[in-house]
ABC-type lipoprotein export system, ATPase component
Amino acid sequence: MNPTPNLTPDLTLSELEAEATRKKAAFGGDAHIVCDNLVRIYKTEGVEVVALQGLDLVVDKGELIAVVGASGSGKSTLLNILSGLDVPTAGLARVAGMDLLSMTAKDRLRYRRSVVGFIWQQTARNLLPYLNARENVELPMKLAGRARGQRASELLDMLGVGDCAGRRIPEMSGGEQQRVAIAVALANEPQLILADEPTGELDSETSGQVFDALRTANRELGVTVVIVTHDPLVSEQVDRTVGIRDGRTSSETLRREGAEGEIVAEEYAVLDRVGRLQLPRDFMNALNMERRVRLELESDHIGVWPAREEPSDEQ
Ligand SMILES: Nc1ncnc2c1ncn2[C@@H]1O[C@H](COP(=O)(O)OP(=O)(O)OP(=O)(O)O)[C@@H](O)[C@H]1O
């Protein structure tokens, strides 16, 4: 009888590594996106910038979420890692069961071509100006050697830009261009769409149309959608908004329909596995909380109090 692998004393190094990876993967279970203690350090001219410092994120298949945060908080760094363009310094990043740290170059190319689709803020980065909308959508299918058929027209129709099929990119409005960009991103049936400030260059009405198109893609095709944005209007239209601060997930706002059909939004602080949470800076400032706080366990909550003043002479 074969010995049980994890009891045998003479495991090879690669078996031990595989074992360690299996244990780590327990966080987030088989969620569609799992970032566990993700770290990204940039080194430029001897200076280190810690862009992500132990970020945790779990996104289920078919979710549509917004990622918000101040400039420099690490949103684009996260998106670049999830898109397979950048590799984290440490931690775990898994999308659709694929490990983004240990992926081979060949798998990375396949991942970028057919597992994930992206939409950037600048339309010039999404579309080729000398092709018309249909040709732009067909291009990724051609590169992947896929049959084209009616898919390009169907996607353009679904996103409300069917009438733009024969037009070149400069002959369309900014909102139409971004909706065509969504069709391009969907061309190879990706499981995940990543959008970096997709409405950043648009007015609020046009932004609404682009956002509706992302929602349609999410609902009709079941594709998971992650949108990085500064736009508070966008984050009001998703079920879950994840806030990033200083390279870590710090808050989550969940939206649900109330009993009267009204939208109820509740903001939560994110608690990590060892019990750390970030208090909102304005709460800390309001009560002059610095360095240390007092905690008190009550029957149904934990109280957080400013540290006591130095003991007075009275006692
Ligand atoms: N290639 C790089 N080299 C060095 N530092 C970088 C690099 N890219 C990002 N950074 C730094 O990492 C931190 C996070 O940057 P990131 O672009 O992810 O933030 P962001 O939240 O997307 O900001 P914004 O909303 O302004 O786009 C910042 O301090 C930034 O200066």
Q: What stands out?
A: Residues 42, 44, 49, 51, 69, 71-77 surround adenosine-5'-triphosphate (CB under 6 Å). The radius of gyration is 23 Å. Residues 1-8 have pLDDT under 50 and may be disordered.
